[in-house]
Fold this protein.
Amino acid sequence: MRILGQPRLHPTPPYDGERDSLVGLYFKDASRYDLLSETAERRLAKRLIRSLRIIHAELAMPEDTPPTLREAIGSLGDLCAFSPRFRRAYRLAMACRERLIQSNLRLAVHIARRYGHYGIPMSDLIQDANVGLIKAVERYDPSKGFRFSTYAYWWISEEVQRCLQRGMRVVHTPENVVEEIRRLQKVSMRLHQSLGREPTQSELAHEMEATPSRVGQLRALASREVSTDVPLVEDGSFTLADRLDAGVLTRPDQPFQARDRMVRLERMLSELSDRERDILTRRYGLGLIEPDTLQTISEQIGLSRERVRQIEKSALRKLQALFGSNSDGV
């Protein structure tokens, strides 16, 4: 018997265009997990209920707390602080969670494919469908007695529709911001019709009861992203990235190079005597505002300038002998 609203899923192969693609490989992997029969799902729900009851009892949660994975997992700390019985119940609950997700991956793919003609990459749709599936698993109350697939169908569809609302953006916009952008667009269209012109930012802010700066932010977020690989000439030899001013480039590892150089320097100086290390530190201004002259060093430590020079050269030869070319450029 098929539950109303639950699609009939067949183990059909991927679309021809997807057969060798990442989506096709994902569908092939998801097809390895069989759908749960009504009897198997009922047994799994009973195991989940028992494990959640143990978790709720040991956590001393209020009686009106919904027996869901979301409530149980969100209240956990270090598992080592709980009894062995609690840990067994937790592992059983997590196993049930994984089984529910795996057995409904094909349902998520099925729903995602229904929205494949809206211009959103199928990989994005499937990803958000899986997010909806995970949300459904963590909010599912098995004590209610209804099929999980029926419950998950709504959550998956809702998450995929949110993906469509966000559109093709590299960085996903939060849902509350998406709602603000949609409201801004409606207000802008209404004012355009009533004023016969494009509304100003101040007029939009007044209508939305927001600040002009916020309206500007929403306008910027609503604008489409432009790839830096967009060609500016027909043969594609010159792209937008070639026109952008990079300014002062900083390599990702540049801050660590200075740190590593200091570590190597400290290791090298540790091979010297205290006097040699003190003279080199002063002579080359290591950790100082500027280097000291031979005269200044000789006056401060009570040695002649020539003796200071001899100690400096001796220390440098020692470092050269110990570290060779590794001391260059430090």
About this structure: The domain at 16-166 is CATH 1.20.120.1810 (Four Helix Bundle (Hemerythrin (Met), subunit A)). DSSP finds 15 helices and no strands in the chain.
